[in-house]
Amino acid sequence: MIAAFLAGSAMVLASADVRPSTQDAPTLLCWPSDERAQYLAYEQRLIASPTRQRLLDMHIALASEPHVAGTPGDWKVIETIAQAFREYGEGIDGWTVEVEEFWAYLSRPIAASVQVITPLETIPLDLKEKPVWGDPVVSAAAEPFPYLAYAASGDVDGEVVYANYGTKADFDRLRSWGVDLSGKVVICRYGGNYRGFKVKFAQEAGAAAVIMFTDPADSGFVRGEVYPEGGWSNECCTQRGSLLVTGWQGDPLTPGVFADKNAARLNPEDVSLPRIPAQPMGYGPAGEILRRMAGDNLPPEVAESWKGGISTTYRLTGGPNLRVRLKVEQKRELVRTANVIATLRGGSTEPAETDRRVIIGCHHDAWNAGAADPTCGTIAVMEAARAFADQARQGHRPRRTVVFAAWGAEEHGIIGSCEHVERHRDLLTAAGVAYINLDMASMGTQFGASASPELKTVIADVARVVPQARINSISVFDDWSRRANAGGTVTIGDVGGGSDHVGFLMHAGVPSASFGSGGSKGNSYHSAYDTLPWYWKVVGDDYESAMMISRMAIGVAARLADAPLLPLDTPRATREFAGHVRSLAPAARELAATRPLGDPAEIDALLTLAESRAVQDVPRLGHFPGQQALLLNKADRQRLLNLANQQAMTSSRRWLPGPGIPGRPWFRNWYVSTDENSGYANWILPGIRRAIETRDPAALSEALKVYREIAGRSSRPSS
Questions:
Q1: Could you tell me which of 298, 14, 286, 276 has the C-alpha nearest to residue 153?
Q2: Cβ neighbours of residue 457 under 8 Å, at least 6 residues apart?
Q3: Which of 113, 125, 343, 365 is the most exposed place for a label (fewest CB within 10 A)?
Q4: Rounded distance between C-alpha atoms, residue 586 and residue 591, angstroms
Q5: β-pair partners for 114
């Protein structure tokens, strides 16, 4: 049925008119009409390649035991991936495999304990995750107890304050209510922001320690049956994770440079690592604390929104008769680990010096076995590599280079991919066509994506020819648009933070996308229960989700790597830029008016320029500048295609005007950065957004100058 679906789609798309409607596939117009059918046959073979058995076999090979970064289990996974890549490419000219070693400053647990202290008793809390019958990996967790990487060592006790999700807004509320956090133990639930910011905000408020727990309202029995009967978090399920918060991503001691063994490193004392202890736990032990809190009630305005699912009255403070003692001991040290990278050199007709490349990646390290995070995405990268290698062995090589990467030490702070980007920044900025991230991507049948504007059209196009998981008679696009209820369109968001696309997009300026699929009923995030039996029970052992993600990644990479005209929708980027300026304009005008002799009209001048460019950059044919070259004879076509492709690459780098974002120079992309206060979310037009958030009219004025310069650059190719 899959083959029939793909064949039918290919026939429809091959007959697309040179002036497609928005319901057609504009990226197929990046091939001359006489080459389109040949490409579609190649694409069909690629997309049909992934199989359940190979995905299952690789999943078992990579996720059967714990493999925290730098441990023996990690190196076993590195060697397994490297060997598989070598076997895929055996006998293929231009196929290379590199184990890219680096030395990162990581954190290792030594001891942890939490006690509840009342005038009548001292109660030690059980932090361990209990074994599950039929799931032997749970009892073989890599660490004897859950921990938070980079938490400070210490032995403290104090009264308790509940801080909801521990977001900036939550701590602002505590301050407005006059709650003194000095010397207190803050307890907060997971969600709302990156866990490192929970500790950062608590530390800045004077807290002595932080406890984080998974609330059942967010991911426990309130949502459905818990593991092992169902898939949701049971009472001892605990989310591990990193607390790393610096002004850059990657290794905390080597900002901007590759962390090889001999790299010049910062003194750890000079880096903003956590200075207070922090400990995660399940909602079972957290309830032992919350149920004994007898202090101030939650203020009426947050009584419902701050209430979770534990059977108790959620209170603001614990009162003087409740104390919590928290002891954490960790060791921070340089640890050797590696990225594993397979490269298929393209058979390009473009100038050899460009060496343009499309990268598909996912990290390989995990907090434990990591069947979901990240390995259900890693196996899709592996299947993509095998599919391209098989076609290359049969003589079908894409025009451009395709890279397949498994990144190391992502869980400690997006380290391996960022080190790779720092090592190859100039090459990636010059030649990186796109990066596709598949972290934890195969988690259900409901496909979704976030992406740079330049990539949104090609993603939607490929979704029209990939069969929907478990309903192979319709396309991913059909199911996606039905769920979106948007009249035949789909919504592709802008990428945020939290995974390996950050270095490519926000440091090197490479257009990036993140694929995922959801809809499964459960969550084992960063816990000892993230195992193969959990995945097979909750997501499924048919691997339909992983096949769908593999096919989407393969299809998008193939179009980007093989189209004679790069299918980068730079006019769309111009239009979305104008839309974002428009949405920020009211707040920017208000801020500009607060500055003596300020000029609120500065934002209007930028908006006028951005909107005029959005109109001017609409191409004359189809969606992509340069399509006129495809109508020429072959003798003249290639020269003009080279010019158009170089213009598309240059236009996609217009968001790198020179210096990085003020206050965060590692983030060089002025279109998007991570949210400075949450870590996972994004800031679009971060120069303007940061000035608004910090109430800095002078910074706003300077940022508007940069964006006026960017807006002055057209995405249309020179004639």
A1: 276
A2: 26, 27, 567, 569, 572, 623
A3: 113
A4: 9
A5: 326
- Among candidates 437, 441, 552, which has minimal Cα distance to 47? 552
Are 559 and 30 a contacting pair, CB within 8 Å? yes
Query: Exposed, middle or buried by CB within 10 Å (0-12, 13-18, 19+), for 90?
Result: exposed
pLDDT (mean) for 70-98? 97
Element (H, E) at 477: helix 476-484
Give, to the nearest 10 degrees, the angle between helix 570-592 and helix 634-652: 20
CATH topology of domain 570-711: Transcription Elongation Factor S-II; Chain A (1.20.930)
Retrieve residue 467's tokens. Answer: 């069969």
As its CATH architecture, domain 110-331 has 3-Layer(bba) Sandwich (3.50)
Over residues 377-399, the pLDDT tens digits come to 999 999 999 999 999 999 999 99
Convert the pLDDT of each residue in 110-169 to its tens digit: 999 999 999 999 999 999 999 988 888 887 666 678 999 999 999 999 999 999 999 999
Q: Are the CB atoms for 230 and 522 separated by under 8 Å?
A: yes
For 419, the enclosing helix (H) or strand (E) is: helix 415-423
φ and ψ of 688, to 5 deg: -70, -45
Rounded Cα–Cα distance for residues 672 and 683 (Å): 6
Predicted structure pTM score? 0.94
- Residue 161: CB atoms within 10 Å: 24
Three-class SS state of 435: strand
Cα 362 to Cα 500: distance, rounded to the nearest angstrom: 7
Annotate 352-367 with b (16+ C-beta within 10 A) or e (fewer). Answer: eebebbbbbbbbbbbb
Q: How much is the pLDDT for 714?
A: 57
Residue 155 tokens read as 């032995």
Tokens of 306: 């701050």
Residue-by-residue DSSP string for 529-541: T-SHHHHHHHT-S
Residue 342 pairs with which residues in a beta bridge? 97, 404
| Domains of the chain, residue spans | 110-331, 570-711
Give 479-490 pLDDT, tens digit per residue: 999 988 656 678
**What's the whole-number average pLDDT of the chain?**
91
The string of pLDDT tens digits covering residues 442-477 is: 999 999 999 999 999 999 999 999 999 999 899 999
Pairing type for strands 512-519 and 401-407 reads unpaired
